[in-house]
Design goal:
- The protein is 35% helix and 19% strand.
- With 1032 residues, it is of the alpha/beta class.
- It folds into 8 domains: 101 residues, Barwin-like endoglucanases, CATH 2.40.40; 97 residues, no CATH class; 100 residues, Barwin-like endoglucanases (Beta Barrel); 96 residues, Vcp-like ATPase, Chain A, domain 2 (Roll), CATH 3.10.330.10; 156 residues, Rossmann fold (3-Layer(aba) Sandwich), CATH 3.40.50; 90 residues, Helicase, Ruva Protein, domain 3 (Orthogonal Bundle); 166 residues, P-loop containing nucleotide triphosphate hydrolases (Rossmann fold, 3-Layer(aba) Sandwich); 87 residues, Helicase, Ruva Protein, domain 3, CATH 1.10.8.60.
- The strands form 9 sheets. Strands 1-5-2-4-3-6 form a 6-stranded mixed β-barrel. Strands 13-17-14-16-15-18 form a 6-stranded mixed barrel. Strands 28-29-30-27-31 form a 5-stranded parallel sheet.
- Helix 16 runs parallel beside helix 18 and helix 32 packs across helix 33.
- It is flat, with a radius of gyration of 37 Å.
- Its main location: membrane.
Length: 1032
């Protein structure tokens, strides 16, 4: 299965729909089809189309066939080109823009699909898809022609006369069928082995293209009146007070400042320049009387006038006037204007010059010619990403091949990705995507009322003179727009940074910030985003690389690094793992000399700061591990916690926005399953899910094709068709990640224990669910905080305390964090209390979560009676009480403790607000409870049909616990295995028919040798403890 190798330049043209053809199919002239697409006389072909010849991933598959209508048109292919014809509905469905260049590639062997999910809206469509007539016709069509299936698209089956065998058939039935899902890839063909699922969906499909009126709409478009974007009625121009024919006063409107990426999404015109063009909605232009591609002069309240070209927005759902952040940056005198709102007042006026003249006496269109600059003197802006002393003549020459609008003082960026000389000339520097320049001075051929001039290499002479230190235009990445959690932390950082950026600093405070958080939480990403938002450069150093063989060498490295700041300001220096800075090379102790030297250098740099600011940001996992002297150098501290469920859902929405997901997977489901994950973990999850999907797709395709083909032969086709990520792919990826990192990051899990695994204890189950499940299902009723957070399960060993806690976590969909009491105790002073705090911290980040303290009596004994000389246990109990009291601050964290000896616990633990709900779990004293436990244990075992578990339960002693009954079944199962082995040894013919089946004899034997783990005397003691607790 190998895709065709020939790639054609695709020429597209529109045709009007034909009632006998599918509206979403593409058509080719006979000559083109026979030359490029036919194979063995086939009358249809599957073609992949994509925008870049070297990037074929996730191509769009189209169904192409020769058309009778196209035979009247001359062949359109020239050279290697291929001409296809399609309706406007087809172009819109495939999101094809006729202005762009596309490439096509024949796919001779399209992979078949494992399953297809059809969604319909009417009973007729549902009945037709389920009829024998549809099934028979489809099977015959598959033998002669491929039937293309695309997820989130109409059913692309060609029309066939045999469909009319179904009495209720009409052509509209095909248009009502929508492909909601398919697997293992998002586009492929039907085969006789493909599983088809049909479901009626009453509500409209969210991604379905409405084609019910495609005939009328496209036919009417033949006689549509073509109206120019800038045409206005004569009565409107003469009678209404529009801006165009209004007074000479300046007009003040509100404009929106957007980043470059969002600015480009507002228009489909690739020739526009975000440095010279302002975008305006047609409605706003209509109200102001502004023409498309006309020139205006604009400025902010604090700034100079600037000439821009006004271009219309193609998106009908947007209104207003939009400036790119680069253009707005160069228009503003205040270089930190981006700290304010993105909506700002803008003054606009006409160009008052002799060059702005009326074209005709009856026309209100005006033209203006912006003069060319004679000479342009340019400085390179200092940056740590490139060598500002190099000569960038080739970069500037390529950039000014197109005409640019430039003002004196402008900062502009030139991309370096196509410049080989740039890469080789600065090999000692990391590869940079952009080089920044500043326009130092310009001379003109003739005077012009504004400072804006046109510059290109044909009409202007460019001089690269020197270097300068300046702010650069800010950036707002897509992460910041679509991740509210990052935007929230970024806003917090901006508030701390604003005083450092002003020239009139009110206080002599150090420009430093310490960002703490777990690995992968985005500390460095936040610092980089801060630099990009502030228009500052950034330089990243890992503190481990700053260490030397001796303290003196380390001090010299730190001094050398910090001395770069003032030379490259404005800049943010990012010091990763700041807790390693003062560590001795051969040990874990702090080196006081390094810490003092760092502190002294920071204060010296702050005192010597010139006009341009700088910031130093340190990152650490835990601020408590940072040296005290270094810690005092950081003025502001920002803590990044592990994201909660809603924040993880936001991150997943961002990561999955460009992925194809099956209908059974949602970001909310993944957010619930990924408690304790940070951004890097979620990204790893996506990569693992893709790998699982790829492996599953290859296995499925090999199975469907009945081939032993290796995976390498399928990889290219899989990339073309695109993978669909399923719930199973993500579940496998989550299991793998949790298995890899559970010890490293303490990722809580949801255990697989259900109520069916626990026999009896109905009263206990009800009591627990009332405590935990009600606040989860009705949080609004418990908003005042009056809810229980602690449960204490006590009773004899083996009564099911641990199993019950796991079942609570499973049935309530809570994460489960199991903690054994002794494992929290540490020999170092204060470390045991730190372990307690860390447990609750992990649980809060994984909320909703259950913390299960097993053997609680060993962790929290009665204070004053522990007998240790250091008072460690007393401090542990006090710390545990403190953490329990803090659970009522809004976190969905529940604590369940288990103990055999509640009388040994500190009484403070049992007071209201802590473990205030005590639940006793005793032995199964009656026959009914013992029977249910036996049913729960044996439900996964094979038992004889005549086995009566109630009889077995009646023969069991009354002091048997749940663990004893499970051990009884294990002993009976072992006896059954021995019995089968003995029968096989007697006669080998019994080997193939041997089945291990438990009967009443096996249980009777187990009972005869079994001794309960809790004696009658011990059971009586536990009952006395229960009575004492309930009475108190």
């Amino acid at each position: 299965m190998t895709a065709g190798e020939s790639v054609f330049v695709l020429n597209l043209a529109t045709i009007y729909p034909d009632g006998n053809n599918h509206p979403l199919h593409f058509f080719a002239h006979d000559a083109d089809f026979n030359e490029h697409l036919t194979k063995d006389g086939q009358l249809s072909a599957i073609v992949a189309i994509f925008q870049h010849p070297a990037k074929e991933n996730n191509a769009k598959l189209i169904f192409v066939q020769p058309s009778l209508e196209c035979r009247t048109i001359e062949p359109g292919n020239k050279g290697d080109g291929l001409t296809l014809y399609a309706t406007k509905s087809a172009l819109k469905n495939y999101d094809i823009d006729l202005k762009r260049t596309y490439y096509a590639k024949l796919i001779p062997n399209v992979p078949t699909l494992d399953s297809v999910f059809f969604s319909v809206q009417t009973d007729d469509s549902e009945n037709w898809l389920k009829s024998d007539s549809f099934r028979n016709v489809i099977c015959r069509m598959i033998d002669s022609s491929p039937i293309l299936i695309r997820k989130n698209c109409m059913f692309l089956c060609p029309y066939d006369e045999r469909f009319h065998q179904y009495t209720a058939y009409s052509m509209d039935l095909l248009r009502e069928i929508f492909i909601s899902d398919c697997s293992p890839i998002k586009q492929g063909i039907l085969s006789k082995r493909t599983k088809i699922i049909v479901k009626k969906t009453p509500q409209p499909f969210s991604k379905r293209e409405d084609l019910s009126m495609f005939k009328e709409n496209e036919q009417n478009s033949k006689n549509a009146v073509l109206i120019s974007d800038f045409a206005f009625g004569l009565s409107i121009i003469k009678n209404e007070p529009t801006f165009l024919n209004g007074a000479k006063t300046n007009l003040k409107i509100m404009c929106q400042i957007v980043d470059e990426e969002e600015w480009k999404q507002l228009t489909d015109d690739e020739d526009l320049d975000y440095m010279k063009d302002a975008l305006i909605s047609k409605q706003t232009a209509y109200e102001l009387g502004i023409f498309d591609k006309s020139f205006l002069v604009i400025k902010f309240e604090a700034g100079t006038w600037r000439t821009v070209r006004i271009c219309f927005i193609n998106k009908n759902n947007r209104s207003g006037l939009y400036l790119s952040n680069n253009l707005a940056f160069n228009m503003s005198d205040d270089r930190i204007f981006w700290l304010s709102q993105v909506e700002r007042p803008l003054f606009i006026k006409k160009i008052e010059t002799e060059d702005a003249e009326e074209v005709d006496s009856s026309s209100y269109s005006r033209k203006a010619t912006v003069p060319f600059a004679k000479t342009v003197h340019i400085d390179v802006v200092f940056s740590p990403n490139y060598n500002a002393s190099d000569l960038y003549s080739s970069l500037l020459s390529e950039y000014f091949t197109e005409t640019r609008f430039i003002n004196e003082g402008d900062i502009f960026a030139v991309e370096t990705r196509n410049d080989k000389n740039f890469v080789s000339s600065i090999e000692n520097f990391p590869p940079a995507k952009l080089v920044y320049f500043r326009v130092k001075k310009m001379t003109v051929w003739s005077e012009f009322p504004t400072n804006t001039l046109r510059v290109d290499k044909e009409n202007s002479t460019l001089y690269q003179e020197g270097t300068t230190q300046m702010f650069i235009p800010p950036k707002f990445s897509s992460k910041q727009r679509y991740l509210p959690v990052l935007h929230k932390n970024l806003s917090n950082c901006l508030e701390h940074c604003e005083p450092f950026l002003r020239d009139d600093r009110p206080l002599d405070i150090l420009p430093t910030i310490l960002i703490c958080g777990p690995d992968g939480s985005g500390k460095t990403s936040l610092a980089k985003a801060l630099a990009e938002n502030l228009g500052m450069h950034y330089l990243v150093f890992h503190c481990q690389n700053l260490g030397g063989d001796t303290p003196g060498a380390t001090e010299a490295k730190i001094k050398q690094t910090l001395n770069k700041i003032n030379k490259m300001a404005p800049i943010i220096l990012i010091l990763q793992k700041i807790e390693l800075l003062a560590k001795e090379k051969a040990g874990s102790n702090d080196d006081i000399r390094i810490a003092i030297a760092f502190s002294r250098l920071i204060r010296k740099l702050s005192a010597e700061r010139k006009n341009l600011p700088f910031l130093i940001i340190g990152t650490a996992i835990d601020d408590k591990k940072v040296n005290t002297d270094i810690h005092q150098c950081f003025t502001h501290h920002i803590q990044l916690n592990s994201p909660n469920e809603s924040e993880r859902e936001e991150m997943l929405n961002y990561l999955l926005s460009s992925e194809e997901l099956a209908i059974d997977i949602t970001s909310k489901y993944l957010a619930q399953k990924t408690a304790g994950f940070v951004m890097s973990d979620l990204y790893s999850l996506l990569l693992k899910a893709k790998k699982c999907a790829q492996i599953d797709a290859i296995k499925s395709l090999c199975r469907l094709e009945n081939e032993g083909t290796t995976s390498n032969n399928y990889m290219k086709t899989l990339h073309l068709c695109g993978l669909v990520l399923t719930k199973e792919n993500f579940d496998n990826a989550i299991s793998a990640l949790q298995a890899e990192h559970s010890d490293a990051i303490g990722a809580p899990k949801i255990p697989k224990v259900t109520w069916s695994d626990i026999g009896g204890l109905e009263n206990v189950k009800e009591e627990i669910l009332n405590t935990i499940q009600l606040p989860l299902e009705h949080p609004q009723l418990f908003s005042s905080g009056l809810r229980r957070s602690g449960l204490l399960l006590y009773g004899p060993p083996g009564s099911g305390k641990t199993l019950l806690a796991k079942a609570v976590a499973t049935e309530c969909s809570l994460n489960f964090l199991s903690v054994k009491g002794p494992e929290l105790i540490n020999m170092y002073v204060g470390q045991s209390e730190e372990n307690i705090r860390e447990v609750f911290k992990r649980a809060q980040s994984a909320a909703p979560c259950v913390i299960f303290f097993d053997e609680l009596d060993s962790l929290a004994p009665n204070r004053g009676r522990s007998g240790d000389s250091g008072g460690v246990m007393d401090r542990i109990v006090s710390q545990l009480l403190t953490e329990l009291d803090g659970l009522h601050t809004g976190f969905d964290v529940y604590v369940i403790g288990a103990t055999n000896r509640p009388d040994l616990l500190d009484p403070a633990l049992l007071r209201p607000g802590r473990f205030d709900k005590l639940v006793y779990l005793g032995v199964a004293s009656d026959i009914r409870q013992r029977t249910k436990i036996l049913e729960a244990v044996t439900r996964k075992l094979k038992v004889a049909d005549d086995l009566d578990l109630e009889t077995i339960a009646r023969n069991c002693p009354r002091n048997m616990t749940g663990a004893d009954l499970a051990a009884l079944c294990s002993e009976a199962s072992l006896n059954a295995v021995k019995r089968v082995i003995d029968r096989i040894e007697i006669d080998d013919n019994n080997k193939e028919t041997a089945i291990v089946e438990l009967n009443e004899g096996d249980f009777n034997y187990a009972l005869s040798v079994f001794i309960p783990s809790v004696s009658e005397k011990e059971l009586q003691k536990y009952e006395e403890i229960r009575q004492n607790i309930e009475s108190s």
